[in-house]
Amino acid sequence: MEAIQVTGPADVDGHPAAVDAEARPAARKRDREATRRRILDAARDLFGEHGYGGVTIRMIAAEANANTALVHRYFGSKADLFAEVLSGESVLRGVIAGGPEGLPRRLAEYFAHQVEHRSVTSVSRLLDRSAGHPEVKQSLLRYLEDAIVEPMVAQLDGPDPRARALLASTILMGGGPVRRLFGLNDLREGDPDELTDRLTAMFTAALAP
């Protein structure tokens, strides 16, 4: 179907410039997607820094250069937005999904990479700072179950696979208070290969039948 032409601003020759009306919905869609992404990014950063209870919709909107009405329109409540942020975290899913043979080593390398590069993932910060809040308890449990525990269980043979997966998850995701109080400098000062080897042994023991 031929695009509808409407009169717009003058073009370089002084004639009315043609505006493709069919392009305007696509442009609006791109604007909506960009705004939605800004809101998600802002929420991830703020939830990770302050925890669920320390963040308001107004703070997220200001960080995203949006208004609160848009935040509610795109995501609903603050709890719904928190759940959406969690659902987009896929790094650990990729680490776990590589197959059972190298799983302990992959988990160890993931952990050691965070130590070496002084980077705690956004989901680790979210879990660390928001785990005790009742409004998001179910979202956190669902994320841990769907993204970490069940994918590990699916790769384990032998008895008590869920208990073994939970033990490995505790090593992987735990330690928030210790990390905040002591930092990770002592771990960084050691040999990174030795750290990875030790972590591999820990994950191997946790996941073993």
UniProtKB/TrEMBL annotation:
Keywords linked to the UniProt accession: DNA-binding
Biased segments, Basic and acidic residues type: 21-34
Domain HTH tetR-type: residue ranges: 33-93
Taxonomic superkingdom: Bacteria
Signal sequence, renumbered to the chain: none
Region (Disordered): 1-34
Matching Pfam families: TetR_C_16, TetR_N
DNA-binding region boundaries: 56-75
PANTHER family, sorted: HTH-TYPE TRANSCRIPTIONAL REGULATOR RUTR, TRANSCRIPTIONAL REGULATORY PROTEIN
Protein's recorded name: AcrR family transcriptional regulator
Organism this protein belongs to: Actinomadura algeriensis
Source lineage: Bacteria, Bacillati, Actinomycetota, Actinomycetes, Streptosporangiales
